[in-house]
Amino acid sequence: MSTVNLSAITKQFGDVTAVEELDILIKEGEFFTFLGPSGCGKTTTLRMIAGFYYPTKGKVTFNDKDMTTVPPEKRNTGMVFQNYALFPHMTVFENVAFGLKVRKITKSQTKKRVEDILKKVRLDQYMDRQVSQLSGGQQQRVALARALVIEPDILLLDEPLSNLDARLRDEMRNEILRLQRDYGITTIYVTHDQAEALTMSDRIAVFNMGKCQQVGTPTEIYNQPVNDFVAEFIGETNLIPIAFKKEKNNEKIYHCEQLDADIQVQATEVNIAEYNRNDQLLMSIRPESVQIDKASLTGENVFKGEVILVQFTGASVHTYIKLSSDAIIRATDLNEGPSTYLTNGSKVNVKLPADQIRVIPKARM
Ligand SMILES: Nc1ncnc2c1ncn2[C@@H]1O[C@H](COP(=O)(O)OP(=O)(O)OP(=O)(O)O)[C@@H](O)[C@H]1O
């Protein structure tokens, strides 16, 4: 097991800066996820940890040992790729044994270790099959077994589930977590799928355009995003520009030009992100925190509006409301039966509770 410390690493490919001045400390035994849209530098960062790329600037250390320019085979990391990267003409056993053969482990030791790991990933009956005769999910298990059999200090997974269908993806998520917990191995997982990141990770780093925007636990990232990029990338949210007006008791008052109204926000750390004087500000309110009622709603931040769209998803219902100022707010409620669904054209009141709003700055590019 290892800690992984990335200090001020930058990777340039010609004119393209794929990763810029990245600082991340991954703890021993942690399940750590790099999350972000396509092209934001996740894979490049993972490859610098694996040793397939060396940083243009900065330092990579494992347990305080400088690994910045150590070749991949000397890092003791296990890697799983999106496309599995197995040898199709070899059997399951041969694929998994490959890394041990390279490391000159004895035949009897190899047999024992491969058999043990194949039991762990529940593929022991398939030992003699060619991998080309396995399903996608089974091939990904072989890739996992191959990465784990060398007893790596760090497990690196690059979008390992993206070629699988939804049901299998769910099953493999649990499988990966079970193995990771069993082995207690420091694991770095790359994905652009926020649900995967939220459900699996101890901590997440959210990337955008080669820069890390925020590092935190899934609940921190969801409940306390540091800027509009993170708020929008993780989950759904309503984002509306606002400007600070004044402070009153335990509340801050912001003016919202779009709603032509003042907005009250509870002045706590959870509700107000750090920002600078010159930052452009937005309020973010999650659809599940928006209250709608046909009858009157009391208290702060109540607006009149009209329902323009109702979307039924099964477990929940999304309702889009156009406020009199023309701004559109989305609300999400758990499905509580047909009698509770609103219809298009219904006149409603919408409340944005002061303790559910988060004030955030616009992300700096
Ligand atoms: N070998 C390379 N040569 C030139 N540019 C590269 C190379 N590898 C990556 N890039 C560029 O660096 C940026 C980051 O790429 P990277 O593959 O790390 O992103 P990513 O977040 O993993 O994306 P995806 O989810 O699509 O794999 C992109 O603009 C990409 O085009």
- SSE string, helix = H, strand = E? EEEHEEEHHHEHEHEEHHEEEEEEEEEE
Task: Name the helicity range.
Answer: 10-25%
| CATH superfamily annotation of the largest domain | P-loop containing nucleotide triphosphate hydrolases
Low-pLDDT stretches are none
CATH class placement of the largest domain: Alpha Beta
Keywords: ATP-binding, Cell membrane, Membrane, Nucleotide-binding, Translocase, Transport
Function: Part of the ABC transporter complex PotABCD involved in spermidine/putrescine import. Responsible for energy coupling to the transport system.
GO cellular component, one term: ATP-binding cassette (ABC) transporter complex
Catalytic activity: ATP + H2O + polyamine-[polyamine-binding protein]Side 1 = ADP + phosphate + polyamineSide 2 + [polyamine-binding protein]Side 1
If you had to describe this structure to a student in words, what would you say it looks like?
The protein is an alpha+beta fold. It has two domains: 4-223, Rossmann fold; 228-361, Nucleic acid-binding proteins (OB fold (Dihydrolipoamide Acetyltransferase, E2P), Beta Barrel), CATH 2.40.50.140. 23% of the residues lie in helices and 35% in strands. The protein is built from eight helices and 20 strands. The relative contact order is 0.12. Bound molecules: adenosine-5'-triphosphate (ATP).
